[in-house]
Write a structure and sequence with these properties.
The protein starts with a strand and ends in a 7-residue tail after the last strand. It has a 7-stranded mixed β-sheet with strand order 1-3-4-11-6-9-12, with no helix packed on it. Strands 2-21-18-23-15-14-13 form a 7-stranded antiparallel β-sheet. Strand 7 and strand 8 form a beta hairpin. The protein is globular and about 55 Å long. It is mainly beta. The chain has a single domain, classed as Jelly Rolls (Sandwich). The chain binds ligand LADIRMRS and zinc ion (ZN). It is an enzyme of class 5 (isomerase). It comes from Paucilactobacillus vaccinostercus DSM 20634. Its cofactor is Zn(2+). Its EC number is 5.3.1.17.
Length: 277
């Protein structure tokens, strides 16, 4: 597991391109047969990819977290962005279709990930946040997500936000998670931009419209923005003070996950277009 530290806005003001990438970008999330995780000091979120091929994979983190087992003091959300998979949660074995996932409550001892077809393996994007209470483990089906159409063609930001883990439909200690899909011919996400000083957020960009599509992700304070260029299936950490939005050379999708002070999705501070620098 890689550690990414927390930085003040004054610090990142001095970062060059390489430092921005080193501190905020995860260049590889899915590695066949492997688990790649990042621990950010921003609200202690752990996120990354579990990509089983021939063997089942389980996240084992005890000494790293000073606990007896990974989810002793944490909750977990995941969404499968690869082929059909299987997850066994404390002995309960379930098939996970592409774009479906799970919320796994604190206290769960074993979560085992498998692929059904090693030629087209499952890719589980996992996010875990500190928890204080056990809430029921729950299947997250794409069809049951809250679909919120946003934006319009004129502003090139027509997209649908699918909320998977949201306090309005289920119990969660602090994790919120969803999947946003841009329509073809649209390129801007989360524009107009916002911040939410009460929550940090990570973005995994994926499902780019063409092989040479690239996304430029914007972060930093509204009056002092930075950008990071991303390839498909790369992720970026956004501190609470940071805007988090992007533009693609074609359409694309992304999985966002948040945690922090509250669970109010709409608790956002809109940034006036005139204030962006
Ligand atoms: O497309 C969007 O806009 C989003 O998906 C925004 C994220 O959900 C977000 O930033 C929530 O705070
Ligand atoms: Zn946000």
């Amino acid at each position: 597991m890689v550690t990414k530290y927390a930085h003040s806005p004054e610090d990142i003001d001095h970062y060059n391109t390489d430092q921005m990438r080193q501190e905020f970008l995860m260049e590889k999330i899915f590695n066949p047969g492997d688990i790649l995780l990042t621990y950010t000091y921003n609200d202690r979120m752990i996120f990354g990819g579990v990509t089983p091929v021939t063997q089942p994979l389980e996240i084992i983190l005890d000494k790293d977290l000073g606990v007896d087992y990974f989810l002793q003091r944490r909750e977990l959300g995941f969404i499968n962005v690869g082929g059909q998979g299987i997850v066994t949660i404390d002995g309960d074995r379930q098939t996970i279709e592409p774009h479906d996932g799970y919320y796994v409550g604190m206290g769960t001892k074993h979560v085992c990930f498998e692929s059904v077809d090693q030629v087209h393996p499952a890719k589980f994007y996992v996010v875990s946040t500190p928890a204080h209470k056990t809430y029921p483990t729950k299947k997250l089906a794409y069809k049951d997500s809250i679909a919120m159409p946003m934006g319009d063609q004129e502003h090139m930001n027509k997209r649908t936000i699918h909320k998977y883990i949201d306090a309005s439909i289920m119990d969660t200690c602090q994790l919120q998670m969803g999947y946003t899909v841009l329509e073809p011919g649209n390129s801007w996400n989360t524009m107009p931009a916002h911040t939410h000083a009460r929550r940090m957020e990570t973005y995994l960009y994926l499902e780019f419209g063409s092989a040479d599509t690239r996304v430029s992700h914007f972060m930093g304070t509204p009056e002092n923005t930075k950008h990071i260029w991303l390839e498909p299936e790369q992720a970026v950490v956004n501190p609470s003070y940071s805007i988090h939005c992007g533009v693609g050379t074609t359409n694309y999708a992304f999985i966002w996950a948040m945690c922090g002070e509250n669970q109010t999705y709409d608790d956002m501070d809109a940034v006036d277009m005139h204030d962006l620098r």
